[in-house]
Amino acid sequence: MTGTTGTADAWGDPGLFGPGSVTWQAHGDPMMWIAGVRALWLQALHPRAVRGVLQNSDFREDAWGRLLRTADFVGTTTYGDTTAAERAGARVRRIHRLLGATDPDTGERYGVDEPALLRWVHCAEVGSYLHVLRRSGYPLTDAAADRYLAEQRTGARLVGLDPAGVPASRAGLSAYFEAVRPELAAGPEAREVDDFLRRPPVHPLLTPARRLLWTRVANLAYGSLPPYAHELYGRPAPEPEAVTRRLRLTGTALRAVPARLRWQLPPKHIVRAMRRLGPGARPTPCKLGA
Questions:
Q1: Does 69 fall in a domain?
Q2: Cβ 144 vs Cβ 138: under 8 Å
Q3: Residue 201 structural domain
Q4: Mean pLDDT of all residues in 84-108
Q5: What is the pLDDT of residue 105?
Q6: What is the CA 243 to chain-centroid distance, rounded?
Q7: CA distance 9 to 16
Q8: 236 within domain boundaries
Q9: Coil vs helix vs strand at 119
Q10: How many domains does the chain have?
Q11: Number of H helices, E strands in the chain
């Protein structure tokens, strides 16, 4: 099934979104990495959702692998052809069907593919992408932001959600977060994720790199969280204007690196898409209109 924003042409299959979509353009931005870390912090505040992650994986041993697999899934479903995107979604759904978690307080056993949990993970993820990109200066109008969220219903379908039950606008997303807030808490599992993101284990030889790179990424990601998240984690909220300035400076610096160099980093989803569809398919923010 090809998304309505992709149009097959002489070059090949545009996939589920296609070069005319906001998703295609926005997901090529380098600030997506900071947005992805923000999403991890936010997702961890849902006790049932984060429990499903930690009870089914060794988060501390494989956190980087998990982050890279998520990035690969997003890249495949955004820039891959329709077959590759649908296969990636089927693989995720198959894994989720096999996994469950146990509430330590009640003994309740539940599946990690409960719609409410999948919806939280989806909304925290796409909401983080949208928030960080816009706050760091990426040119997205309000109308384009709403288009992005509507397009992401396709991504929600891939992980097993009914698209009709997923927010498709900024107003809908805000209403969703307001409704789910009473369910959020920084329990033991969230604290474990928080501790890891603040002090990830690395080889001693990489300590300077962690200090220079990871600390900046983590501070920006954490600082961009909503105020209620800072309150739940129990640490003072950074000054919002200072966070915005840092996000904009970082976004400006990263976007100054030529895209042709950035896109050569593995797994090269965008490069492969351009080979399939032609150079006119390259993600370009100026393509985003109202």
A1: no
A2: no
A3: 38-62+95-261
A4: 96
A5: 92
A6: 19
A7: 14
A8: yes
A9: helix
A10: 1
A11: 16, 2
